[in-house]
Amino acid sequence: MRRSALLTALALTAAAVTAVPAAADPPSSGYTLVFSDEFNGSAVDTSRWNYRTDVKAGSAQRPDNVSVGGGLMSIDLKAESPPLQGKDWSGGGLVSKKALRYGYYETRAKMPVAGGWHTSFWMQAGNGSTTFPAEQRTEIDVLEQDSVNQRTVHHGVITWKGSGVRGPYAPGITYDSGLDVKQWHTYGADWSETSVKFYIDGQLRHTVSYTPDQWTHDYLNIWLTSIAYPQTANGEGVAQFDYVRYWQKDYYLDNEGPAAYGYSESGGWHDSTVDGWNYTSPTRYATCHTAGNTATWRPKLGGAGSFQVYVWKIAHSGSDPNARYDVGHSAGTATKRVDGTAGASGWVSLGTYSFAAGESGYVKLTSSGVGCARADAAKFVRA
């Protein structure tokens, strides 16, 4: 390439990045940034990302199609001759190794110009080797866009029972955004226990009621991908992402799995066959008719603030009718008694308190010596 042409190309690239609109960021205060990649390096950070490597729809997905440079992550969308794994086209993408739960997710992206490519910013459990892993429960499609359309986008939620078996819940919307999505735009989703709110350029576009059940409390990986779909692509192209970020506002702790980081016990505790609030979530019970057994949930709060504290009460005729819950907060300790034999299982509020950032706050359950104290989950919801 001649020097003048090279300088012109570099200037155009710099102008394109500079023209990217400002980030939208979370829709309200109280969120803490806990995961991000600004793609400012010169290569994919493989300590944080897996490549999408499945074969699906019209393309095979190749790690070589994914690159990082100039502050962007790019997915090259290519024709393959001879065919690659039986496909005439290849796409690709990245899948976060870290799995996350409720909070605000955002990326800034530019769709390919050529038709026939399906570009997505979405969350689901998995490592990129298949879109139908055994552990799939919730899929949240923050953005799905077919490049045959200049302005159409899709937002939605799908529940799964694992390995490609659909669950009972799949609300979503496909609509004319009114925007040229082949230019830079910001896409976000605020996922809570009761809803998913979808945003474009900081504007709320759609809300899905999220009714959690045994399937839908799982941790999700972030996917940034583009494949040939729904029909064969009609030209090569590139999908680009400027960054991806995740902010957390509420904190959920369990007695097992990824949310067990702040859970501890003292005394005698045993696995129970009584269900908890989460899919495949075993509950625990203290040695029955023995006082002084404790279970403690201690969150890692990303920022100071006021939080309403809940515990998941496991209603059972053999539960502790006078279980003690102590909430350690910035001003001291508050105590509440909960009758585990009454009513139905569900979240019980222990009150709203101020907490410092870090791990000084906690909820501690202590058995009364009557019945069997039962422990499963606690949550700290920013007030």
TrEMBL record:
Record's keyword terms, sorted: Signal
Gene Ontology terms, MF aspect: hydrolase activity, hydrolyzing O-glycosyl compounds
Keyword Nucleotidyltransferase: no
Top-level taxon: Bacteria
Record-linked SUPFAM superfamilies: Concanavalin A-like lectins/glucanases
Membership in a protein family: Belongs to the glycosyl hydrolase 16 family.
InterPro entries: Beta-glucanase-like, CBD-like_Golvesin-Xly, ConA-like_dom_sf, Glycosyl_Hydrlase_16
Native source species: Actinophytocola algeriensis
GO terms for biological process, alphabetical: carbohydrate metabolic process
Residues in the signal sequence: 1-24
Signal as UniProt keyword: yes
GH16 domain location: 20-252
A UniProt-annotated Pfam family: Glyco_hydro_16
Protein name: Beta-glucanase (GH16 family)
